[in-house]
Amino acid sequence: MLAGVIQLFLVSFGLMYFVALAAGGLSVLAQSRRHRPTGPSGSRVPGQSAHRITRSGRRRKGRASRLGGRILRHLTTADQPVRRLAAGAGAYHVYYLVPCLNEELVIGATIASLLADPQARVVVVDDASDDRTAELAGAAGPGRVLIVGRALPAARKGKGPALNAGFAVIQADVERRTLAPEKTIVCVMDADGRLSAGALHAVLPLFDDPEVGGVQLAVRIRNGADGLLPRMQDALFLGLSAAFQLARVHCGTVSLGGNGQFTRLSALLELERDPWRKCLTEDLDLSIALSVEGWQITTTPAAFVSQQGVTTVAALFHQWTRWYQGHMESIRWLPRLWSSRRLSHLGVLEISLFLMVPWLLVLPWSILFHYTLYVMIRRTADWYTVAAMGTDRFQHLATLALWYMLSFAPNWIVGYLYYRQDRRIGLVRGILTGHLLLAANYVAYAAAWRALYRMVRGQRSWTKTARNREADGVARPAAAVARPATSVVPGPRVTQPASGLRQPGPDGLPVGSAERELAGSS
Amino acid sequence: MAVAAVAEDGPIRGLEAWLAGHVIGLLALTTAGSAPRAAVFWFTARQHVQVGMEITPECTVAFLFIPFLLATAWLVWLRPSARAPLTALGTATALLVLLNQMRFLTIAWLVRSMGFSSGFYWGHTWLGSLITVLGLALILGIYSVIAIGRARPRRRAVRPREARGC
């Protein structure tokens, strides 16, 4: 009976969470489509979509007399909301921050694509690469690219400290150019990341809201057509993560990721700490830190960042283990979340539920799902003797249909959301791809349990995903390779300062950046 | 309270049976009644045929109530004000009882219209499960929304002062 009650609650909790986020995501998509500007022929204008998605509280402000509007406004308001002043007119200045570890196959094309924006400045943090990453990065954009070289044994300690090293350089350059931190945007990109056309036009206006501290772009898998595994990852990133991120716009608690992560410099400085901490998911950690301080984090359906998907199950398993472990360790934020008076009520609830997903949903469900599956198979095997399955063949089939409907509802939802965001996929194909997530579930279950095991053992080493060259000169994904946190590769590091940026210190790092360990991108 | 709900679910089941007797009698437009001590409610399925149903421990809300109770205890301990979590608990409890009554009512309706065998299957196994899962998901959502509401000082409307001449 206890199993029955737990099972009922898990199914209901999962359904509530899925349906609420799916509905929220769909409402933002619908809002975006309604306000999408069209060209003279009625066609969509690329990069000029309705990127400003408002939060529920504001959108419903005019309807506050309605009970629903009042409740929503109350929920989306903090006890002590922070009111920040608008930064005033003027263009935004964007710094791209790209941490690298052995990225020679992709870095050149990535930098070239980022420098397509004539105002962009790129800071590449070379985390003691063994290959020609630094050389190729410098050659890709002479004059506007600064290479921050890091040497062993301080290097290769993780992505967070590498980003912080690059951040110190950006800070110094902003001071030298006397730029306003409120109008300066830091964008973290993976070495294989590519922004969609017009991404900046979609992102930067979101920062016109002085309360917005960060914007996260949806992630797409570039090699999604290469096989079932990349296709599955694309469905997960777009149909699940991106759609649910859109729902989080209502709470202002969109979760930052490691690629296509835009943050306002003044928000990062307000934290009064290194923005990216030495943890497995430094992006999630930063999101929560900003939320606790009352900053809004949002996203847009009008742009995305693409990256390579892994092509082997083993690599996927290693990657997800790190994500799950970082996610599960973030549970320590709960007390601070619940005591924050700058975060809205709905924001507290949303982030709390999000942090508890592995603990309340994935781990228990991995056991209970198989228990119910076993019961169903047993009952189906001798259904003529089990009254609970019904008394005739039609009722037996109806019972099986009910079980399928409840168990696979998330797959239908994800498949539909996948289709809604990219209609080229087609509804049937989208739904079928949604069912592929059943296989993804097993990778997730195994990764979550391994993450728990590693937490218990106190293991915190990480695995970096390697890349291969793509046929068109861009990169092709490769299997993840395990990298010990303490590996030492001898040899001098080359620091290549770019003109126009502040000269680094004599050791190849900016003066004043005392914390200079680690680096490496996910 | 959680321990009491597990150990002494009889009175709760009896109360539910008593309530079901009245709800079915009122809304299913048939003769209905209950035997609370046995946690049984009954209704007239067709002429001269009465159907009695026992509310078993698997069918009562007593056990569904426990997670809400534990969550509320945690929230009261964590939050500065107990008002919102307790309001949420009260609301969730009322809705849980309502949900279970809706399930009993559905069974009664379908048994009356389809006969016992088919009606019980569709009302209890099929629709009953669906009502419970979807209803519980809804109640969880409502509970969460109410529980996170925090007491805020009411803002008083500021009345503009009249300009006074010297």
Describe this structure as you would to a colleague.
The complex is a heterodimer of chains A (522) and B (166). By secondary structure, chain A is an alpha/beta fold. Chain A contains 16 helices and twelve strands. A seven-stranded mixed sheet of chain A has the order 3-2-1-4-8-6-9, sandwiched between helices. In chain A, strand 1, helix 4 and strand 2 form a beta-alpha-beta unit. Mean pLDDT of chain A is 78; it is low at 38-52, 56-64 and 473-522. Chain B is mainly α and 166 residues long. Chain B contains five helices and three strands. Chain B has helices spanning 2-7, 10-27, 62-78, 83-114, 116-147; strands at residues 32-35, 40-46, 49-54. A three-stranded antiparallel sheet of chain B has the order 1-2-3. In chain B, strand 2 and strand 3 form a beta hairpin. In chain B, helix 2 packs across helix 4 (83-114), helix 3 runs antiparallel to helix 4 and helix 4 runs antiparallel to helix 5 (116-147). Chain B is elongated. In chain B, 33% of the residues are buried. The chains are: A alpha/beta (522), B mainly alpha (166). At the A-B interface, helix 1, helix 3, helix 13 and helix 14 of A face helix 3 and helix 5 of B.
DSSP helical segment count of chain B: 5
For the terminal residues of chain A, how far apart are their CA atoms?
44 Å
Structural class by SSE content of chain A: alpha/beta
Mean pLDDT of chain B: 81
Mean pLDDT score of chain A: 78
Q: In angstroms, what separates the terminal alpha carbons of chain B?
A: 68 Å
Low-confidence parts of chain B lasting 5 or more residues at pLDDT below 50?
A: 151-166
Backbone shape of chain B = elongated
Structure summary, number of beta strands of chain B:
3
